[in-house]
Amino acid sequence: MQEFNAVLDLLTMLASDFRMGGLFVLLVMAAVSDVRFYRIPNWLTFGGMVFAIVYGTFAARTPMTGAMAALGGLGTGLAIMLPFYVLGIMGAGDVKLMAMVGAFLGPYQTLQAILFTCIAGGFAAVAVAIHRRRLGHMLANVKGAAQGIVVSGIAGIRPNGTIDTRQSIGKLPYGICICVGTIAQVLAHQLGFV
């Protein structure tokens, strides 16, 4: 019971922090939009980026360090997620949302948030596959992709990087995974686990 109260106190503290409260609200709005329309609006991601950079610049001890942390986090989120968009695995809104998260968190914490997001995405993909009764199909896709990577690596052939959408098990609104993964990372960071 004491741990539960500590988590509630932490959530209250984070909600009262203007920056983290703003991030959480933007993440939930993005997740809801992604579920309903399979789209994350630009006004939300770009507005969040501007807010995070301006707030980070003026809330830091020195404006230069605050701006560099916000811009470094934005760049980290963008650089890591952009290849997934190029390969057709992820939508542009998801990439911009992760860049926005980076502007709030800074580079190091953004790396952790991406890791937590990928874990949440893995669980969500399995849950969606089970719900749609396509788990076997998903596992066959993973096996085929892994074999292709291994064969390409052994043969020294560069993979073409295209994904056949007919083999897909369906769309996953990844904004939910970014929301859940980022909030979990922020809570874990505040509790001293990461």
From TrEMBL:
<dbReference type="InterPro" id="IPR000045">
    <property type="entry name" value="Prepilin_IV_endopep_pep"/>
</dbReference>
<feature type="transmembrane region" description="Helical">
    <location>
        <begin position="43"/>
        <end position="60"/>
    </location>
</feature>
<feature type="transmembrane region" description="Helical">
    <location>
        <begin position="110"/>
        <end position="130"/>
    </location>
</feature>
<dbReference type="Pfam" id="PF01478">
    <property type="entry name" value="Peptidase_A24"/>
</dbReference>
<dbReference type="GO" id="GO:0004190">
    <property type="term" value="F:aspartic-type endopeptidase activity"/>
</dbReference>
<feature type="domain" description="Prepilin type IV endopeptidase peptidase">
    <location>
        <begin position="23"/>
        <end position="125"/>
    </location>
</feature>
<dbReference type="GO" id="GO:0005886">
    <property type="term" value="C:plasma membrane"/>
</dbReference>
<keyword id="KW-0812">Transmembrane</keyword>
<feature type="transmembrane region" description="Helical">
    <location>
        <begin position="7"/>
        <end position="31"/>
    </location>
</feature>
<feature type="transmembrane region" description="Helical">
    <location>
        <begin position="67"/>
        <end position="90"/>
    </location>
</feature>
<protein>
    <submittedName>
        <fullName>Prepilin peptidase</fullName>
    </submittedName>
</protein>
<keyword id="KW-1133">Transmembrane helix</keyword>
<dbReference type="GO" id="GO:0006465">
    <property type="term" value="P:signal peptide processing"/>
</dbReference>
<keyword id="KW-0472">Membrane</keyword>
<dbReference type="InterPro" id="IPR050882">
    <property type="entry name" value="Prepilin_peptidase/N-MTase"/>
</dbReference>
<comment type="similarity">
    <text>Belongs to the peptidase A24 family.</text>
</comment>
